[in-house]
Structures are given as structure tokens and as C-alpha cells.
Design brief:
Radius of gyration: 30 Å
Number of strands: 6
Oligomer: single chain
Helix content: 25-40%
Distance between the termini: 80 Å
Largest sheet: 6 strands, antiparallel
């Protein structure tokens, strides 16, 4: 209309720029918030949370192949499981069908486990990758409570004993390198207790030589001054290392 005031040049453009800038800021904040939420979700997906309700029944519900993998080895980091073939140090020869505590354990180890209320003993035999060392691993199922802790204290005492207990009854596997594996070939033992109400287990291991060579019986002066103990030490170390490997493995199965 004639005489009507003319709006200042660029006024509407300035308002639009301000609104656009605000929308951009809120958009970026939304993207950052969404990214953080996604990162948090991914982080949670990588966590392994122990299932305390499953722990006590794990030995009944897992398959034997899961409890005793075809190969086991000490994981170099959390990225690996003991059952990963990349870290294999031992190969499974066979799994025993007998789960009796009295048949699976021997000596003081059996007496201690039975006194603590042993419910079952699951065994499997392995041979190391050199084909020279054989071992029988026993998963000892205990009642809930302090039994695991007491079993762990027993294993600690045996580690420093002059003549350690034989621990596990060897499980021979016909047609394999463990075909002649028997009680009089045992050279070392080791153990690890998991313990607690949520995971009432202990691991016991007995080791020996595939060719039957026995340790700790050096003749005459050769056996004096602790030499027998030193001769037995590699077998003890191997048994303890294998028990720790299965400790890690069972802990992973609980998750």
C-alpha cells in the first residue's frame, strides 16, 4: 500500500539463521547422546557376569565335551578361553563314565573330599603336545559352603609336602598314549579349589610319564639333599598349571 513502511532488509533471514543454529546444536547433542548410549550398550555386551544360580548345577547341565574340551591350554589373556585351539597344550584322550568319589580319588585326597561331603568326581585324561606327559584331571563336586576353601588349604599343604599325595586315580584310555596309565606311574599332583556357595568345586590333577618313568626315587646319594623333591617338581608344576587352567575354564562356563 502507498505509504506503508518497508521491513528492514535481511530481518527474516537473521531469525532463520538463529533458529537453524539452535536446531543444529540440539541435533549434535542428540547424536552425541545416542552415540554414548550405543557405546554403553556395546560395553555391556562385552561384559561377562557370573551366573551364581547356574554355578552349583553346572556339572549336571554342561555336556562332557564342554566340561572337558578336546584341547586345553593356559590362556595368555582374557581374549582366549582355555578350550581355544590356538592355546592348546594338552589333548584329551578320554572321559571316564564313573563319577564315584571313592573310585575317582585316592589317599588323603579322597579322605579329605569325602569328609567334606564329596558328591561326585568327574575325570578325563589328557596327554601334552609332546606326547611324553599324561595327566588325569578330576572335577570334584562339593556341597555349598566352606568345603571348597578347606579343600584349597589341603592342596596348598600337599604342594609343600616331602611326598605329596597321589590325589587322582588315573583313567587309562585303551588305544591311546594313555593306554598304560596307572597308579604306580603317578609322579606329581596339584589342585585348585573354586569354593563358595555359587561355585562349589575343586580341581585335582595327577601327572605321570607316558613311558612309565617314575620320579623322586633317585638311588643312594643322588636322592639326598632334596634331589628327589627337585626331580618331582616338574611334574608337580605341570599338575598345578593344569588345575589352574581348568579353574579358568570352569569359571568361563559359569558365565
Amino acid at each position: 500500500m502507498p505509504g506503508a513502511p518497508v521491513p528492514p532488509s535481511g530481518g527474516g533471514s537473521t531469525a532463520r539463521k538463529v533458529i537453524g543454529g539452535l536446531l543444529t546444536v540440539f541435533g549434535v547433542l542428540g547424536m552425541l547422546g545416542g552415540g554414548a548410549l550405543a557405546a554403553h550398550a556395546y560395553s555391556n555386551s562385552q561384559q561377562s557376569i557370573p551366573n551364581s544360580a547356574y554355578g552349583p548345577t553346572l556339572w549336571r547341565n554342561e555336556t562332557t565335551d564342554r566340561l572337558f574340551p578336546a584341547t586345553v591350554g593356559e590362556p595368555p589373556s582374557y581374549r582366549y578361553d582355555a578350550a581355544d585351539k590356538q592355546v592348546a597344550q594338552w589333548s584329551r584322550m578320554g572321559i571316564s563314565q564313573d563319577t564315584s568319589c571313592s573310585e575317582g580319588l585316592s589317599g588323603e585326597t579322597k579322605e579329605t573330599a569325602e569328609r567334606l561331603g564329596c558328591e561326585a568326581v568327574l575325570r578325563a585324561t589328557y596327554v601334552d603336545l609332546t606326547g611324553e606327559m599324561v595327566a588325569t584331571v578330576a572335577i570334584i563336586v562339593l556341597p555349598k559352603g566352606t568345603a571348597g576353601q578347606e579343600m584349597g588349604e589341603y592342596f596348598d599343604d600337599q604342594e609343600h609336602a616331602d611326598v605329596p599325595d597321589a590325589a587322582v586315580v588315573p583313567f587309562a584310555v585303551p588305544g591311546t598314549l594313555a593306554a598304560k596309565w596307572q597308579g604306580n606311574r603317578r609322579n606329581g599332583m596339584g589342585g585348585e579349589a573354586l569354593g563358595g556357595d555359587s561355585f562349589p568345586y575343586a580341581i585335582a590333577v595327577t601327572t605321570g610319564a607316558v613311558n612309565g618313568r617314575t620320579s623322586g626315587n633317585l638311588p643312594g646319594e643322588f636322592g639326598d639333599y632334596g634331589a628327589n623333591g627337585e626331580d618331582r617338581k616338574p611334574w608337580m608344576d605341570a599338575a598345578n598349571a593344569l588345575s589352574e587352567t581348568f579353574h579358568t575354564h570352569l569359571g568361563n562356563l559359569e558365565r
